[in-house]
Design brief:
The chain is an alpha/beta fold. The protein is 46% helix and 17% strand.
């Protein structure tokens, strides 16, 4: 049989070669339909430093879900892929690889070193694209970009020059964060503050010309080599007599003044503060107020420089040990008090960051920030999902500092500034004419180019670029909350400045993936999970299902192999359902399906279960689409799971066996058609989340052609809605479930026939579906009537619209039955209390939609009826 599926779902077999087929068919490219609404996404570019991690797998999965659904809905979709050069991280990785062969970057020189980095980029970009393929992401590779492409580099130069000409980029000497390992400046958000064990070192400084000393406390005693003053508060009576005098720095014997400044807190420590302007941000501000000299006492690599006297050449931490020992020997180390405190570490290299005075390039942020803040009050505001992250964005923009954008690296966009021997500086998009000009050695922060990503990838600065005009602003960005400051904020203010528009309409924020114990994944803990390993075991579809269903927007998720097992089991369930349907409906034509569905909709053929499942399919398609539009993929997945597993597989499929094992061929044809249609629609609803196996099954359906990637997404078909059928089958399912529960309570297997009585106002309907009742409950006698005598010795259950009685003579213990019913009565009382509380809330009744309020009122009536019936039955049993 050509459309036969293997008995067991094998993700390796299903996914092998599928991605290449999609690429060959060009199904991921925009439709080019001018009448279709455009929908565009630019992929958060992974850096070319290695393999994809689970966080990036999460990004790409959610974006792929969005773009696949929009493509199926008829949008002209563009998902543009690309990668980030990641200056610091990539240069460090390449330098480490060279070091294995005993080669330093300086041995090669800038150009040859960059050749090595480009080789690295080509190697790892290939790896990343292979991993994208395993994830199944539907990007348009014909538009792939890299942050060091010439087109993007042109955009970077243009932005730099325009901001410089406006006075918003400037070069100056400021205190910055310095990474001694990478030997480069860092922006504030590239510094991670970690709590570590340290100490307060209490040191005495002698007053010049006196035997008197003042005591200071510092966590970084080595920085005294760069002290240029000590300060006290002018209101501090303890030290008024010392103001204007000098202290002598121990060991190096340099004389520095005692000044007054409000930065000195009388209530904190000794009230005397050492000022090291070149190595502390607060001290830098004090120095600016008092015009103090600024002494840099550290080399680029974190060793002490020539200003350190006998400590010159020592690593900063080794110098600390030596200085502490020398101070102790001099008797000027008073105390060492352990302290647990936060210390800045490089986000890229992990080493302790040094505040350090340095000449760097900066972006002046005040106007850019004001524009971004003001834009969030306009129609062009970026919508954050969840909305609370708008507050995160706004708070950062309101408190942002000038952005240090120069990096002392070779890998990156070299700053477009040139200098000559006359001391002149030229800034331009191209090199200046004439001889004697040397380009600035530094490169720009990686985030400077990444901030332009949404529009530079579309052809900007050519605003007549076809892609820029059609697909910018982009529709949705998906990213983790950890890079709102790094990337999202910068894209917004740069896009507003250079295009006059927000870069995207929506930002969907997800959390972090943690291990099963809730810990952040890290190399130090050894708890990282390679998504490729997960795919090898479970397949990409299972991983994508887990990633899309793991949590709500903005929330962290714990990785769990149990959940991966559950995802695989779900796929295997659908696989087996599909095998059953294909084996029974392989020859049903498209015309036969269409004709059968029309007859079911018109109620000229088919049965109530057919009309029920089509109604439930409508409801599922509507609710899933609503939740997907709100980026609530977890809710959408839950709705899909319940429909597929419970209603379609566990109930409808089983109910159809009454027809499929019967003699009526015409009715079988209807059922086969409905089964095929529902399966087809289920595969389409699932495809954005789980693309591989849905395509595998879709192409085996008898009436499909082409790829499911471009198949139409399910829509609600009003002609299939049948509320009576929906309510009737719901009652049928509730009834069957109740019988099974009663049998289980008295250990009566389904194989043993027992008498059954059903009292219901819907007796006509229940008699019509009695073959289903008989098949699934096995009654020895079945009595269904609107009114009947209630047997004394019977187990009972109350369901919506009916009362069920099973006379089980000899098996029923009256006291136990009363106890069971009293528990049931308590359950309905609890439900009544909840609904009454909600309906008693005036704000709920006044503000909720009318249909929501009515739904609660309907619940109240249903629960009250069940409560009253159970209560009456208890009374009857007690009387007897």
């Amino acid at each position: 049989m050509t459309n036969e599926l293997t008995p067991k779902f094998n993700p390796t077999e299903v996914e092998a070669g599928r991605y290449e087929k999609w690429l060959e068919a060009d199904v991921f490219k925009p439709s080019g339909n001018p009448d279709a609404e455009p929908y565009s996404i630019v992929i958060p570019p992974p850096n070319v430093t290695g393999k994809l991690h689970l966080g990036h797998a999460w990004d790409t999965t959610l974006q792929d879900i969005i773009i696949r659904q929009k493509r199926m809905q008829g949008f002209d979709t563009l998902w543009l892929p690309g990668m980030d050069h990641a200056g610091i991280a990539t240069q460090a990785k390449v330098a480490a690889r060279l070091a294995e062969d005993g080669i330093l970057p300086q041995d090669l020189g800038r150009e040859k070193f960059l050749d090595k980095v480009w080789e690295w980029k080509d190697e790892y970009a290939t790896t990343i694209k292979e991993q994208w393929g395993k994830m199944g992401i539907s990007v348009d590779y014909s538009r792939e970009r890299f942050t060091l492409d010439e087109g993007l580099s042109q955009a970077v130069r243009k932005v730099f020059v325009q901001l410089y000409n406006k006075g918003w980029i400037y070069r100056g000497e400021k205190l910055i964060n310095w990474d001694p390992k990478a030997m480069t400046a860092l922006s504030d958000i590239e510094v991670i503050h970690k709590e570590i064990d340290g100490a307060f070192y209490h040191i005495t400084y002698q007053i010049e010309g006196s035997d008197e000393f003042v005591e200071i406390a510092t966590t970084r005693p080595e920085t005294f080599l760069g002290d240029t003053a000590v300060i006290v508060n002018e209101k501090d009576e303890r030290y008024k007599h010392l103001v204007g005098k000098n202290v002598i720095l121990p060991i190096i014997n340099r004389v520095i003044p005692i000044l007054t400044d409000d930065h000195a807190d009388m209530e904190k420590g000794t009230g005397v503060v050492k000022i090291t302007p070149a190595h502390d941000p607060n001290d830098f501000e004090v120095a600016m107020r008092h015009d103090l000299p600024m002494i840099n006492m550290m080399n680029n690599d974190g060793t002490i420089n020539e200003n350190g006297g006998k400590y010159e050449g020592l690593d900063r931490f080794e110098a600390r040990k030596q200085i502490v020992a020398d101070l102790k020997e001099l008797g000027q180390l008073v105390d060492i008090k352990p302290v647990r405190h936060e210390v800045g570490h490089s986000e890229r290299t992990g080493v302790v960051v040094e505040p350090r005075l340095s000449t760097q390039w900066f972006v002046k942020m005040d106007e850019l920030a004001k524009n971004a803040i003001a834009n969030q009050t306009t129609e062009d505001a970026v919508e954050f999902y969840p909305p609370r992250f708008n507050d995160t964005f706004m708070q950062w923009m309101e408190n942002v500092h000038d952005w240090v954008i120069s990096r002392q690296l070779w890998w990156g966009h070299q700053i477009p500034a040139w200098y000559n021997e006359a001391g002149e500086m030229y800034v331009g998009e191209e090199a200046p004419e004439g001889e004697g000009w040397t380009q600035d050695e530094d490169v720009l922060d990686t985030w400077f180019s990444s901030a332009l990503w949404p529009f530079s990838t579309m052809g900007w600065p050519d605003e007549n670029s076809a892609d820029f005009k059609r697909y910018f602003p982009t529709s949705t960005l998906v990213t983790g909350y950890d890079i709102i400051f790094f990337w999202v904020s910068r894209m917004i203010f740069q896009s507003l400045e250079f295009t006059g528009k927000s870069p995207f309409h929506n930002v969907l924020i997800h959390g972090l993936i943690r291990d099963e114990e809730g810990r952040k994944m890290s190399k130090s803990l050894g708890n990282g999970i390679d998504p490729m390993d997960v795919i090898e075991k479970y397949g990409a579809d299972a991983l994508r299902w887990f990633l899309s269903n793991g949590s709500a927007p903005g929330q962290d998720v714990r990785f769990s192999y149990d959940k991966m097992d559950a995802a695989w089991n779900f796929i295997n369930k659908i696989w087996n359902v599909s095998r059953y349907i294909l084996m029974n409906a392989e020859d049903v034509s498209a015309d036969a399906v269409s004709s059968a569905l029309t007859k079911v909709a018109n109620k000229t053929a088919g049965n109530v279960t057919d009309r029920w499942i089509l109604t439930r399919l409508n409801d599922t398609a509507r609710r899933v689409t609503e939740q997907m539009d709100k980026f609530e993929f977890g809710v959408a997945g839950h709705i899909l799971y319940n429909f597929i597993w419970d209603e379609f597989a566990n109930w409808y499929l089983e109910l159809t066996k009454e027809v499929m094992f019967g003699e009526d061929e015409a009715e079988k044809d209807i059922t086969r058609a409905v089964l095929l249609h529902v399966l087809d629609q289920v595969l389409r609803l699932l495809h954005p989340i789980m693309p591989f196996f849905t395509e595998e099954i879709f192409e085996k359906l008898p009436n499909t052609s082409g790829s499911i990637v471009v198949a139409e997404y399910p829509k609600v078909r009003p002609e299939f809605n049948d509320d009576k059928a929906s309510e009737g089958v719901a009652m049928l399912i509730e009834l069957i479930t109740a019988v099974r529960n009663i049998r289980a309570e008295v250990n009566t297997p389904l194989s043993k026939a027992v008498p059954m009585l059903i009292k219901s106002e819907h007796a006509d309907f229940l008699n019509a579906v009695s073959p289903y009742i008989s098949r699934f409950t096995n009654p020895s006698e079945l009595t269904i009537a609107k009114d009947l005598a209630v047997p004394e010795q019977a187990m009972s259950a109350v369901i919506t619209g009916a009362e069920l009685y099973l006379p089980l003579a000899g098996l029923l213990n009256i006291e136990e039955e009363i106890a069971r019913l009293e528990k049931e009565l308590a359950k309905w009382q609890k439900e009544l209390d909840l609904v009454n509380k909600k309906l008693g809330n005036e704000r709920f009744v006044a503000n909720a939609k009318a249909e929501v309020v009515q739904k609660e009122k309907d619940k109240l009536a249903d629960y009250q009826e069940k409560f009253d019936t159970v209560k009456a039955r208890i009374a009857e049993l007690k009387e007897n």
